[in-house]
Design brief:
heterotrimer, A alpha/beta, B alpha/beta, C mainly alpha, A: 4-stranded mixed sheet, 43% helix, globular, C: mainly alpha
Chain lengths: 403, 415, 84
């Protein structure tokens, strides 16, 4: 046996340590399609329960929407199940180009390149566009996939304090001697449900001559009057150079991601971006589903409007019940509980009250900032939200969080 | 808008250089499902043409198989389109577990964890397993996604000449003072189609106290008597510690990848692998189809047997026709042309003959090693293979490369 | 002294990167990286060898393909850290 006992022992110890520190993640098994109501088995081997799901990125409720499913079925019939190919070999169907065109028009950018996920997109962008003569300036709280993408790039790395425009300005000044500067930020910071200050960032990148990249994964489809994203919300469409986003959240939730921007960047990514050259093309069934998702949200704002209403309603009611939430309007609503133990107890009790949520604590969020991160969906009805608030109130009283 | 003339002209120039060097990749648009015969629009705007596809990773012909499509339909009906969640939040359905168990059983390992792609599996694995006191010892020709995964890991990086077991042994000796050693190799190397000497690697691993990791993306489903992969082929099923592979090639071609192996390693990935923690769960439609596929290939070796027959037939005929193909057993059959422009010209002419292939050149393969990488499928019938050989023969004659050795071709066309 | 160092490096490159039966000639000017003999992935072995041999640490930003492209280039790089 090639693995000697020492190695297994080592890994087993690591796992035990995680359990002891209450950091061990357990999966819960779901027996239904994703939606507002789901059936979950937790703990393992217990009887599955019907619960209301308040922790999915299913913002527009499209993950099991009949229209999306129908489009996916049609895609299966007309274009098959898989391509088994990277894009440039034999992995580009007519509908891939159609999807790229639709995304470009929706986001208001020149061109788009698809990836098998936004994780891959972020992994493949910086290295393809920048070299050691350049500088990358990134918000310290950016998504893990951006951090990994930056680690693969040779440009000089700078991090600015989260959403701190003064610090961003400082880094821009510091890097004026570099060939190009690229500023990268999440559009929405997913632990807090807070938007990046995109208007101020656009001003700064113009003043200091930098390329701006925004990862809008928690915004595409529902932020902004017509759901185009944070750039629409801040009225800076046309001033953001490059956007990366996912189809794995609001736009259906299956898979896929993309980078959109000026044609010359996209052309170069097609020639150089490693995940694009070495990873499988987006499957025909997902392309078909995503095209339909874009058609739906392009035709009407009713889904994003419902989501906005729901988010407003939940935020109001949960605050009125006495809970502390991070201020904002985004459907990500962090209910701040501060103590990790309280978070875990409440999340567990809420589950037994029929409300499925997830608690976050150190190291995912800073110490003392533990929270239950509620995510609202357009698929939620008012009574779902009422039930959630009631459950939170009941459990919150039990742990002395509210009176 | 910060993007100004200076940036635009810089990138415009980069593109010009790529075009000038003859290295520009163009996409062709396919207007049908993936199969042995496809409809292609090339150049853009031209009427579509029916051509035979010899460059897909569709080894078992399952990418548009009716039973797979039926299973995908059922998956959509019963479990929906997407999960919009990472696995550990609300992204795990019963079928995810079912697929992980089936994969474990098929591959002959203790446990399996799914990733959105094998690229992400490779990106996340090493960082989870190893730290700065450890050593990664990789074959020099491992897949790009493994290279990226290794770059994200703090362990010391060693590599050995491609498939050179004596060199590997030297590196194992050199790293004896490291805490753990991990030998890293592709099972089947994707550019040359050669198979790793996994039996020797496992012997060395045992001798020098190292773990073995294999990326079997171009092997799972069809290499080995029952298609379990390179470890079955080399008789070392219990000796490989961790396998990464994809569902995006032989096993359906849609999406998905996994890490399979010792249960402690898989458990560590579930807790710590960044792509697992931060990337979307594999969608139900893919899970349902993949379950069906594992069932199909576990029940019968019919497809991998046909692929094997096709491969042997094609290789033999191509050699007899005088094409310079890399020797081997896998359905990856590189036709060596060495010069990038020649590879592109030959590919274009083959397209006119109804055979769809693509030229590979720098940076995908080393400079001076351009080729057309043909890939055989269980979907190919004998007449498809004959047509391909005939087309290669005809085009080969035009460019006067039949029966010529490497030096002769380079002398004619440059490197 | 420099000639000895050059010889050592050339011997290492031959052993580490060429097949046993290779007839590739390596001189102090041979383009190692841009000539495709050593790719950027396997360059790390050369870096480790130099660091060990000369008891130095070459910072990552200096370990570029250009700095390693020929034996002469490597000598220039080494001179930043050690007298040879």
């Amino acid at each position: 046996m090639a693995v000697h006992e020492k190695v297994k022992e080592f890994y087993r110890n690591e796992l035990v340590e995680l359990q002891n520190a209450d950091l061990y993640k357990e999966e819960r098994t779901i027996f239904t399609p994703q939606g507002a109501d789901i059936t979950v088995e937790y703990p393992a081997n217990s009887k599955p329960r019907e619960v209301l799901n308040f922790c999915a990125n299913n913002y527009l409720g499209l993950s099991s929407h009949p229209s999306i499913i129908a489009a996916a079925q049609k895609g299966l019939e007309e274009r098959g199940y898989g391509m088994s190919s990277v894009r440039f070999i034999c992995g580009t169907q007519d509908q891939h180009k159609e999807l790229e065109g639709k995304v470009s028009r929706f986001l208001g950018l020149e061109d788009t390149i698809l990836y098998s996920s936004c994780f891959d997109a972020n992994g493949g962008i910086f290295e393809a566009l920048l070299g050691e003569e350049d500088a990358l300036i990134s918000d310290e709280l950016n998504h893990a996939s951006i951090i990994d993408g930056i680690r693969l790039c040779k440009a000089e790395r700078h991090r600015y304090k989260h959403s701190d425009m003064k610090d961003l300005k400082h880094h821009l000044e510091q890097t004026q001697n570099k060939r190009f500067r690229m500023v990268v930020t999440d559009g929405v910071f997913s632990m807090d449900g807070v938007l990046a200050k995109l208007d101020e960032i656009c001003d700064l990148v113009e003043e200091y001559d930098a390329i701006l990249v925004v990862d809008d994964s928690h915004a595409t489809g529902f932020i902004g009057k017509t759901g185009r994203g944070t750039h629409e919300h801040f009225d800076v469409m046309g001033r953001v150079d490059i956007m990366t986003t996912t189809f794995g959240k609001a736009l259906g939730g299956a898979s896929g991601g993309c980078i959109s921007g000026s044609k010359v960047f996209i052309d170069l990514l097609r020639q150089r971006s490693r995940p694009y050259l070495f990873s499988n093309t987006v499957s025909p069934v997902v392309v078909a589903g995503t095209i339909r998702a874009l058609e739906l949200i392009g035709a009407s704002t009713s889904l994003r409007d419902t989501l906005e209403e729901n988010a407003k309603y939940f935020r109001r009611r949960i605050s009125e019940a006495g809970f502390e939430i991070k201020p904002g309007f985004h459907p990500i609503v962090p209910v701040m509980l501060h103590d990790a133990g309280v978070v875990q107890n409440m999340a567990r009790d809420l589950y037994f009250e029929g409300i499925y949520v997830i608690g976050f604590f150190y190291p995912v969020v800073p110490r003392g900032q533990a929270r239950i991160r509620v995510q609202i969906s357009a698929a939620h009805e008012k009574h779902h939200i009422d039930h959630a608030v009631e459950a939170f109130t009941k459990v919150g009283k039990k742990y002395g969080v509210v009176k | 808008m910060a993007y100004n003339e200076k940036t635009k002209s810089h990138y415009d120039n980069e593109l010009k250089c790529i075009r000038g060097a003859g290295l520009f990749k163009e996409e062709r648009y396919i207007e049908s499902p993936q199969a042995a015969s496809i409809k292609v629009e090339y150049p853009a705007g031209a009427p579509t043409k029916d051509v035979l596809n010899f460059c897909a990773n569709n080894y078992l012909g399952l990418s548009s198989h009716p039973e797979v499509i039926a299973a995908a339909h059922r998956g959509l009906d019963e479990r929906g389109y997407g999960m919009s969640s990472v696995r550990f939040i609300c992204g795990t359905q019963d079928i995810h577990r079912e697929l992980e168990n089936k994969l474990s059983e098929f591959l002959g390992v203790e446990d399996t964890i799914l990733f959105p792609s094998c690229m992400e599996a490779n990106a996340g694995l090493f960082e989870v397993m190893l730290d700065k006191d450890d050593a990664m010892i990789a074959d020099r020709l491992v897949h790009a996604s493994i290279v990226d995964g290794m770059r994200l890991c703090k362990a010391q990086l060693y590599n050995y000449k491609h498939s050179d077991m004596a060199h590997l042994e030297e590196k194992l000796q050199e790293t004896q003072n490291c805490r753990f050693r991990l030998i890293i190799t592709d099972g089947v190397f994707s550019m040359d189609g050669d198979i790793a000497k996994l039996d020797v690697i496992c012997d060395l691993a045992e001798q020098y106290n190292a773990m073995v990791m294999v990326d079997d993306s171009h092997a799972t489903g069809f290499i080995g008597k029952r298609g379990k992969g390179t470890h079955e082929h080399c008789g070392v099923i219990d000796k490989v510690d961790v396998i990464t592979t994809t569902l995006g090639k032989a096993l359906g071609g849609a999406a998905g990848g996994c890490v399979s192996g010792r249960k402690e390693i898989v458990a560590m990935c579930r807790q710590r692998a960044r792509p697992y923690l931060f990337s979307n769960a594999v969608p139900p439609v893919v899970i349902a189809a993949a379950i069906k596929i594992i069932d199909l290939i576990s029940a019968s070796t019919e497809r991998r047997d046909k692929l094997e027959w096709n491969t042997n037939y094609y290789r033999e005929k191509m050699v007899r026709a005088g094409l310079d193909i890399k020797k081997g057993e896998s359905p990856i059959v590189p036709v060596m042309l060495y010069n990038a422009k020649l590879a592109q010209d030959v590919a274009r002419d083959l397209y006119d003959e109804g055979i769809y292939v693509v030229g590979f050149f720098f940076p995908v393969v080393p400079q001076g090693q351009a080729r057309i990488r043909t890939q055989i499928s269980a979907d190919h019938e004998r007449e498809h293979l004959d047509k391909a050989v005939a087309a290669f023969t005809k085009v080969g004659e035009k460019y006067k490369i039949l029966g010529k050795k490497k030096e002769e071709v380079i002398a004619m066309y440059g490197a | 002294m420099t000639e000895d160092v050059k010889k050592t490096i050339i011997e290492y490159v031959k052993k580490e990167y060429l097949d046993q039966d290779s007839d590739q000639v390596i001189t102090e000017d041979t383009k190692l990286i841009s000539g495709g003999i050593v790719d950027s992935f396997s360059m790390v072995s050369l870096k480790m060898f130099l660091e060990k041999k000369f008891q130095i640490k070459i910072p990552d930003e200096k370990a570029t393909p250009e700095a390693f492209d020929s034996v002469n280039d490597i000598i220039s790089l080494l001179r930043q850290f050690v007298t040879i």
